[in-house]
Design goal:
single chain, about 170 residues, alpha+beta, Small Protein B, Chain: A, 7-stranded antiparallel β-sheet, two-stranded antiparallel ribbon, 9 strands, globular
Amino acid sequence: MAKMAVKRAADRAASARNGGDRVVANNRRATYEYFIEETIEAGIVLTGSEIKAIREGKVTISEAYVRIENDELWLIGANVSPFANGGYANHRPDRARKLLAHKRQIQRFREEIERKGLTIVPLRLVLRDGRAKLVIGVAKGKKLYDKRASDAERQSRKDVAQALSSRD
C-alpha cells in the first residue's frame, strides 16, 4: 500500500515538472495546410474505454475537423482505436465527440467562420491532470505558393542550424 502511494507521488512530481501536460497527438498537417489565426483549448466528452485508449496514445487527429451544430462544438473524423481490454463496453473508433467550450468562445468562432470563410481544425490532443484537452484553432487555408514558401523557410532554418552545429 505504501509503495503505491510513493509511486503516485513520484508520478505527480514528474507531471508537475513538465507542467502536467502530455501531448498525445499532434496535427502537423494542420500547420502545413492552414494559417492558424486563433486557438482555444476545449475539453472532450469521452467514454471510459476512449480515455484509456488515449492514455495509451492510440488516437489520430490528422483527418479530423470541428463543426458547430446547435451552438455546440463537435469533433468529427478523429480516430480513437478500441481499448485492448475494453471487451463488450468498447467504443466506436470513428464516432463524433462533443467538445466543451464556453458559449462566448463558440460564438466568436462561429462569427469568424461565417464572416471570413475560415474553418476550425484540431491542432493537439493533450492530457492535463488526467483529462483530455483538445487545442483547436480557427484556420485559413494556404494556397500552393504559401506551402512552397513555408517549405523554403523551414529548409533554410534547417540549413542554418546544421551549419552552426557543424561549425562547433
